[in-house]
Amino acid sequence: MSKIIGIDLGTTNSCAAIVEENGQVKLIPYKGGEFIIPSIFAIDDKGNELIGHEAKRQWQLNPRNTVYAAKRLIGRSFHTDVVGQMKKSVAYEMKAGERNDVVLDVAHKNFRLSEISAKILNKIRSVAQDYLGEKVTRAVVTVPAYFTDRQRQAVKDAGKMIQLEVVRIINEPTAAALAYGIGKNLHETTVIYDLGGGTFDVSIIEIRDRVFEVKATGGDIFLGGLDFDQAMINYVIEDFNKKHSIDLSGDPVAMQRIKDLAERVKIDLSSREQAPFSVPFVTMTPQGQPLNIDFVFTRKLLEDLTLPLVNRTVDILMRVMNDAGLDPKNVDELLLVGGQTRMPVVQKRLQEIFAKPPSKGVHPDEAVAIGAAVYAHSLEDNSNLKLQLLDVIPMAIGLEKAGGEFHTVFPRNAAIPNAKAIEATTSYDGQTEVAMRIFQGDHAHVSHNELLGDFLFSGLKAGPAGKARLEITFDVNIEGILTMSARDLETGKQMKTTVRVTQH
Ligand code: AMP
Prior knowledge:
Layout: E1 4-9, E2 13-19, E3 25-27, E4 37-38, E5 41-43, E6 49-51, H1 53-57, E7 66-67, H2 81-89, E8 93-96, E9 102-106, E10 109-112, H3 113-132, E11 138-143, H4 149-161, E12 165-171, H5 172-181, E13 187-195, E14 200-208, E15 211-220, H6 225-244, H7 252-268, E16 274-284, E17 290-298, H8 299-323, E18 333-337, H9 344-354, H10 367-379, E19 388-392, E20 397-400, E21 406-410, E22 415-416, E23 418-424, E24 433-440, E25 450-458, E26 470-476, E27 482-488, E28 496-501
Parallel strand pairs: 1-11, 11-12, 13-18, 15-19
Antiparallel strand pairs: 1-2, 2-3, 2-4, 5-6, 5-7, 8-9, 9-10, 13-14, 14-15, 16-17, 19-22, 20-21, 20-24, 23-26, 24-25, 25-28, 26-27
Helix pairs in contact: 3-4, 5-10, 6-7, 6-8
Bound molecules: adenosine monophosphate.
Adenosine monophosphate binds at residues 10, 12-13, 196-197, 225-226, 263, 266-267, 270, 338-340, 342-343, 365.
């Protein structure tokens, strides 16, 4: 059997790793150089598809047909606030798909989100194949802990499209904990604070040598480095408008140049107190005079602009600590994962909360891919590495009751794998089918939660209303993916399950 690689499929950057014959974990380099592949897909004006570095290189000139941060949209319904929010901040076009999912229009071709992920996965796979000199057909892929069932399923689907078997999906913070804790014979409680390009996750994990048990998790799919960039961009645009009465937000090329620079200046400000923010000839006055953006961005200004974002991460962290019944002083180790945790003020805030500095034991950009590779290795046929990852679901799973009320079947932080059965009956005479809408989220009303599917169970023995008894089983596997089934308790027969609406 071929090797199983570990893939960190990130919002902004992706990375792959492998455990080599000698047991060493290696990040897979691209063309002998960098380990990171930008999670960007584009079609250029000649119709060529570009992925990764090639796509990133041309995005200033071709923002309309360059797709980035697509992971934020995967497994989402089109008509939701988050999608509306995203539409405002990207130059590429999105529209509603047949299944109420999001479809992207790139160079007048339609792409589903799982197709975009498939293209990025395929690029990572081909880089790995070049490096290993053999075919790669299996991978462990990481996802944010805060991904729903649908989002996880979409990543599995992406793998299927390119004949890459996603043997296991694991959570990013859990993978990072694995990279940190493996082989150290630890017995400690760790907090993983993972602030990446697009998403924020917190997990509290108890490490007992080779057992990694998640106690609680939480996060936000719309909270990451991109939002820090956006806060800077908004400031720059407003400032320019004040000075010149010109709104740059409708000019995709100017916006792209500002966006690019914002990220670079942000990164610079992690190691300097100030940095120039200058975009020459960004636009022209109505009289044809060229105008520049040119000022000095200070670290203090960046911190002021992004304080609400840092506060949101702290609120989520505190809620998760509370869910786990954990006090900051009982935390043994704090691991920082994700590039955005390099921002000094983030580290300072956490240091204040935990009264100790974060661990230096993991590399923020590499830990997730390394953990995925270690786990992949443990799943290989002849592996003698035995690991136990005990994870949880990040949000409640349940069904819609009359009036749109959400009835919880699994509360958030329920351990997985997990199965639960509920009993149901019929509401009219002769009824042979029962429909049920399943949602995931922590809100009391289903309209605020994500629809996982609209299930129809059929084949029930006809009888008077309220007489039939059926048992509906909710099965959440080790990857956080839900399967539904039903049984007619009278006949003992398994019923047919059809998913009528799904965004998978
Ligand atoms: P990741 O998804 O972990 O690769 O994180 C990428 C995010 O981290 C991007 O938004 C980057 O802009 C951000 N980032 C990378 N390096 C730094 C740095 N030194 N300071 C602040 N943010 C950074």
